[in-house]
User: Which sequence fits this backbone?
């Protein structure tokens, strides 16, 4: 008879139980969201402006504000993150005091609670730089917040590119800049994309840092200097401050989840194209 | 193959010492590699052969903590000088690694990307070079129909020939080969070896090999490295025939006869 001794059986049962439990929690959250949220969703809900503090109307301007904040965040953080990661992974040999200082700062930043980023963004962007409550303030604050994630994952992705490629490029008299552009970055693209996905996830989910920076005006923003309400802020507001807003909060959450999934799929798709493009373009 | 009667020096190494983080791995070696000939470097593992080779195109610069002293003259210019244009040097001195290392790009891009980088602007001319070098290494008929497919899908032997083609496309004066056959199966190894032999007279080649039979087949000149308490030195050098038939040092005699190393 092939019977396992009981401690093994118990450990296996526990492991299965925990795994099933986690899956069940995720399933329950999703089911709950869809059950309450789906009936509320219609084309009008996606396009119209909110009325009666969000109890009626839609979330059109909120979606637009969210996308604008996300765009500001990524357009500013990505170039900085990429440049820093290249410096750390390719130019510092990883052991200079400067590189250590940067890494320590990033680890510190990664541990800062988002509410603190909100206060910092409010003090710096909204007040000191005079941007007020605006899409720009919110996006820049989020950029500060996602930088550590982006930089560390991009550095990791670059480090995982085999050093054979660097030597091969150098042996052919190809400059470091060109080998980065043509070989190393396309190679690291899938890893870079994972970092961007994590960053987008954190940015889209953020509420606290945006309350003090991009504000909660639910009108369609006319420029980046207007205040705009993000989806997460809208959900928070509907759930906490608006009696009878629960159904709309659920529906908004469904939209947020879908937006997140679409953004992730787009990011991974672009990375794959970039990786392949190095291989096929003439 | 007819060779010039008086071999002309191409690379002259004088008192070259190499250290990694102050640990000396090559101790004051001096030697000469002759134009258009094949110089084989043999010796036991860890005696600094590959390190020596990587100094000849300054690829050693990529290793953190690596310091060189002495001089290496390529046609009279000291390539260890701080003024050396590394990009130009590496165009003149090509290199093939032990493990084939094509870029994770298409077969075509592996050849054309470096050409583009070195200023060959016309696509037609790049395509012409592409065909010429692929024919030169005998790959053209095997890959002509799939030039835009990933180079990494090729077999090991084909990848190594692609790397050779990629190096030849830049028309180097010197080709450094670091055990180019050791990661290949016997058939592929034979093909690459024949290619190296066929470049004799056209390109100055310096090949590091563990395979004494291969050294015997290929080399015009032979350099025997040995290690003395972790410090690589040259124990014997000269025309390959002479060194193989009547080695001067006892270490070389024992090594070449297979009883040591």
Assistant:
């Amino acid at each position: 008879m092939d019977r396992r001794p009981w401690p093994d059986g118990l450990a296996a049962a526990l492991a299965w139980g925990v795994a099933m439990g986690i899956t069940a929690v995720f399933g329950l959250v999703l089911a709950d969201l869809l059950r309450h949220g789906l009936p509320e969703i219609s084309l009008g809900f996606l396009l119209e402006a909110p009325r009666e503090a969000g109890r009626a109307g839609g979330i059109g301007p909120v979606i637009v504000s969210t996308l604008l904040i996300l765009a500001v965040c990524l357009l500013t953080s990505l170039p900085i993150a990429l440049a820093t990661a290249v410096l750390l992974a390719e130019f510092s040999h990883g052991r200079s005091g400067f590189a250590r200082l940067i890494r320590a700062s990033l680890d510190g930043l990664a541990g800062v609670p988002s509410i603190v980023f909100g206060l910092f963004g409010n003090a710096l962007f909204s007040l000191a730089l005079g941007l007020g409550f605006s899409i720009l303030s919110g996006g820049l604050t989020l950029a500060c917040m996602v930088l550590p994630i982006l930089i560390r994952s991009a550095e990791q992705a670059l480090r995982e590119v085999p050093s054979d490629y660097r030597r091969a490029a150098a042996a052919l008299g190809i400059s470091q800049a060109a080998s980065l552009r043509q070989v190393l970055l396309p190679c690291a693209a899938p890893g870079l994309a994972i970092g961007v996905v994590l960053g987008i996830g954190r940015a889209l989910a953020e509420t606290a840092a945006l309350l003090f920076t991009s504000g909660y005006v639910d009108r369609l923003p006319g420029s980046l200097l207007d205040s705009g309400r993000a989806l997460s802020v809208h959900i928070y507001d509907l759930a906490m401050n608006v009696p009878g807003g629960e159904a709309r909060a659920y529906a908004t959450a469904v939209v947020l989840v879908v937006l997140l999934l679409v953004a992730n799929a787009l990011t991974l798709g672009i990375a794959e194209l970039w990786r392949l493009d190095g291989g096929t373009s003439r | 193959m007819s060779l010039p009667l008086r071999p002309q020096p191409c690379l002259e190494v004088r008192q070259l010492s190499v250290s990694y983080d102050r640990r000396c791995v090559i101790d004051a070696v001096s030697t000469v590699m002759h134009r258009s000939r094949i110089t084989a470097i043999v010796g036991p593992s860890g005696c600094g052969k590959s390190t020596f080779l990587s100094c000849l195109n300054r690829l050693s610069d990529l290793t953190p903590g690596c310091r060189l002293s002495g001089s290496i003259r390529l046609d009279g210019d000291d390539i260890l000088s701080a003024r050396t244009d590394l990009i130009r040097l590496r165009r003149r001195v090509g290199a093939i690694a032990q493990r084939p290392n094509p870029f994770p790009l298409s077969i075509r891009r592996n050849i054309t990307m470096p050409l583009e980088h070195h200023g060959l602007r016309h696509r037609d001319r790049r395509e012409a070079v592409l065909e010429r070098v692929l024919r030169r290494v005998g790959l053209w008929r095997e890959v002509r129909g799939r030039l835009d497919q990933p180079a990494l899908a090729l077999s090991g032997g084909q990848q190594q020939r692609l790397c050779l083609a990629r190096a030849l496309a830049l028309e180097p004066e010197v080709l450094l080969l670091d055990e180019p056959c050791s990661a290949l199966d016997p058939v592929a190894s034979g093909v690459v070896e024949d290619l190296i032999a066929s470049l004799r007279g056209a390109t100055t080649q310096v090949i590091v090999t563990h395979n004494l039979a291969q050294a015997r087949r290929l080399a015009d000149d032979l350099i025997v490295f040995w290690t003395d308490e972790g410090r690589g030195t040259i124990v014997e050098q000269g025309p390959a025939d002479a060194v193989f038939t009547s080695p001067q040092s006892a270490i070389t005699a024992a090594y070449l006869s297979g009883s040591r190393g």
Observations:
- The first helix of chain B runs from residue 49 to 55.
